[in-house]
Design goal:
The chain is an alpha/beta fold. It is built from seven helices and six strands; from the N terminus they run ααββααββαβαβα.
Length: 223
């Protein structure tokens, strides 16, 4: 179930021309037999776990994984039973060195983070199978910029974790007097060696939350 504040925002945006054009195009492609990830029921999955005012951490991804069974609407996360993708492997490597007692799980399902208040948000919410960035520029960026803007304005204070140039751009307007903004290279194998490893963003996020009397995130992932 989409949380109430997000439901109100989605409802408001859905009346706008850009959103209607976007959803009509995605529906048309699905109807034409093109495989789109994630499934229709999971497109807004990130908004099912934590409402706008309760977000503690935002981790910003780009577009969903484009392999069979991977994407389920949470950035960087994959379903149980699916091989852990390379970017998430690198996130786990960083967690092992950053968070005491973190044990690398055998799965890539990050639902427990979402349940604790981590908004795992991709800037584009759909993609064609085996065709990365195929739904960039359809209009999702307008919607997710609105989401980021609403958090910036109406959340009492949270941590934004922005990895890679794409995410950095999205974070330009965030009020850093109110929110903590952590920037670094993307965890992809193409860029992780440029400073993602050793960034300590997970522990820095928890330090900030603790300083602001907000319950910290348990980054551990049970098997």
């Amino acid at each position: 179930m989409i949380k109430p504040q997000w439901q109100a925002l989605i409802s408001q945006e859905s009346k706008k021309d850009y959103f209607q054009t976007l959803t009509a195009e995605v529906a048309k492609q699905r109807a034409a037999g093109i495989t789109i990830f994630p499934s229709e029921k999971d497109v807004f999955n990130a908004f099912n776990y934590v409402d706008l005012s309760d977000v503690k951490v935002v981790i910003l991804g780009q577009d969903p994984y484009h392999g069979e069974g991977q994407a389920h609407g949470l950035a960087f996360s994959v379903q149980h039973g699916v091989k852990v993708p390379p970017s998430l492997v690198n996130m786990y490597k960083e967690l092992v060195t950053d968070i005491d007692g973190f044990n690398t799980p055998k799965h890539g399902c990050l639902t427990s983070w979402a349940q604790q208040g981590v908004l795992l948000l991709n800037t584009v919410l759909t993609v064609q199978e085996a065709n990365a960035h195929s739904h960039a520029k359809l209009g999702w960026e307008t919607f997710t910029e609105k989401v980021i803007g609403e958090i910036n304005e109406n959340n009492k204070g949270c941590v934004f974790i922005l990895w890679g140039a794409h995410a950095h751009k999205k974070g330009k307007a965030i009020n850093q007097d109110k929110h903590l903004v952590l920037k670094g290279p993307h965890p992809s194998p193409l860029s992780a060696y440029r400073g993602f490893f050793g960034c300590k963003h997970f522990s820095q996020a928890n330090e900030w939350l603790a300083q602001h009397d907000i319950e910290i995130i348990d980054w551990a992932l049970a098997e």
